[in-house]
């Protein structure tokens, strides 16, 4: 085994260590911004010629079957004068203005379904409804969704039309009975704002928002439940640290062994080179042929006789 093979084995051990210690996919939290960037690219590819005022479902791969995305292109003037209902979950009142102002905008509706808790979480609370999202983009060019994100601001209006209504119907809420849901508004950088909800027989639970974003319903965890979640987190944290320590120790021992093997091999090669150099500096032998074999020979030197007294 030469030194190059030793280094190849070393890299193989390191890569295997990284793969082994990487958390399972099921336990990871996902990045919502990466998801939105993927959906925007998908929408522009799958809906090349959108019509203004038509709601399109954005087709997603099979591994996103629990998630639903829809998009609609609107004129800013039309939205400001009439408002719009985007699916049955969102009601946008009149007097909404995009910032910066554009002639047309694309409004993307999101329903993260059963994967909601993978993308968003609220400390010491449990998410009991799907996370619903409402995002606005510039759509003034030929592309359905351009890269410019827009902010939606409500300029005013009649009573009852001064906020965006987000509806959570009873069938999608799976919290325990007796707990009053709280509206969670998710902002950038992991910020969460908690607000009261209203309830009606026809609309279910309603969150009122002043801008675009992501929303869900949460309930506070009881002290026992919070402790149980914390114990579970610490338990898996200790296992992760133990696995990391064992894996690092194994890699360290493997690397030390490879270094020792490489050092011993280097010493052997050095001794071989020294022996070859000594042999080259010594007396050269002649050669003669015996059949088809070449044999070394030394010239014969007669020992001079000495006279004895």
What is the string of helix and strand elements? HHEEHEEEEHEEEEEEEEEHEE
- Low-confidence segments, given as residue ranges, are 18-27
| C-alpha geometry | elongated
Q: How many separate helices?
A: 5
Pfam families: DUF1191
Protein name: Plant/F17O14-7 protein
Signal peptide: 1-26
Transmembrane segments: 240-267
Describe what this molecule looks like in 3D.
Residues 1-26 form the signal peptide. Keywords: Membrane, Signal, Transmembrane, Transmembrane helix. This is Plant/F17O14-7 protein. The chain has 309 residues and is α+β, with helices and mostly antiparallel strands. Residues 18-27 have low confidence and may be disordered. The chain folds into 2 domains: 1-29 and 222-274; 31-220, Chondroitinase Ac, Chain A, domain 3 (Sandwich). Strands 1, 2, 5, 6, 7, 8, 9, 11, 12 and 15 form a 10-stranded antiparallel beta sheet that branches. The chain has a 5-stranded antiparallel beta sheet with strand order 3-4-10-14-13, with no helix packed on it. Helix content is 34%, strand content 28%. α1 (3-21) packs antiparallel against α5 (223-281). The protein has helices spanning 3-21, 32-46, 76-82, 116-119, 223-281; strands at residues 55-57, 68-75, 84-86, 90-92, 96-99, 104-111, 125-127, 132-138, 149-154, 164-168, 182-186, 192-195, 198-200, 204-209, 213-220, 286-290, 293-297. β11 (182-186) and β12 form a beta hairpin. It contains 5 helices and 17 strands.
Topology of helices and strands:
Blueprint: H1 3-21, H2 32-46, E1 55-57, E2 68-75, H3 76-82, E3 84-86, E4 90-92, E5 96-99, E6 104-111, H4 116-119, E7 125-127, E8 132-138, E9 149-154, E10 164-168, E11 182-186, E12 192-195, E13 198-200, E14 204-209, E15 213-220, H5 223-281, E16 286-290, E17 293-297
Helix pairs in contact: 1-5
């Amino acid at each position: 085994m030469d030194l190059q093979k030793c280094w190849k084995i070393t890299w193989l051990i390191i890569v295997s260590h990284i793969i082994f210690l990487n958390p399972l996919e099921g336990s990871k939290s996902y990045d919502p911004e990466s998801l939105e960037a993927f959906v925007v690219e998908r929408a522009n590819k799958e809906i090349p010629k959108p019509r203004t005022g038509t709601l399109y479902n954005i087709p997603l791969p099979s591994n996103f079957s629990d998630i639903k995305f829809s998009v609609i292109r609107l004129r800013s003037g039309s939205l400001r004068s009439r408002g719009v209902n985007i699916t049955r979950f969102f009601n946008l009142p009149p007097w909404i203005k995009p910032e910066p102002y554009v002639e047309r905008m694309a409004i993307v509706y999101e329903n993260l379904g059963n994967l909601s808790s993978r993308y968003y979480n609220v400390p010491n609370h449990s998410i009991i409804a799907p996370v619903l999202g409402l995002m606005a983009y510039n759509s003034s060019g030929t592309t359905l969704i351009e890269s410019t994100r827009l902010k939606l601001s409500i300029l005013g209006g009649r009573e009852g039309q001064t906020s965006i209504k987000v509806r959570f119907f009873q069938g999608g809420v799976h919290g325990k009975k007796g707990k009053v849901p709280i509206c969670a508004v998710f902002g950038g950088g992991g910020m969460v704002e908690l607000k009261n909800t209203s309830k009606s027989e026809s609309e279910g639970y309603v969150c009122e928002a002043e801008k675009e974003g992501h929303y869900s319903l949460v309930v506070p965890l009881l002290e026992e439940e919070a402790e149980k979640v914390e114990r579970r987190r610490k338990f898996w944290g200790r296992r992760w640290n133990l696995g990391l320590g064992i894996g690092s120790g194994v890699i360290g021992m493997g690397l030390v062994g490879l270094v020792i093997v490489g050092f011993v091999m280097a010493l052997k090669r050095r001794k071989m080179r020294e022996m070859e150099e000594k042999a080259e500096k010594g007396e050269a032998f002649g050669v003669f042929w015996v059949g088809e074999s070449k044999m070394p020979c030394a010239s014969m030197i007669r020992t001079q006789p000495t006279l004895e007294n």
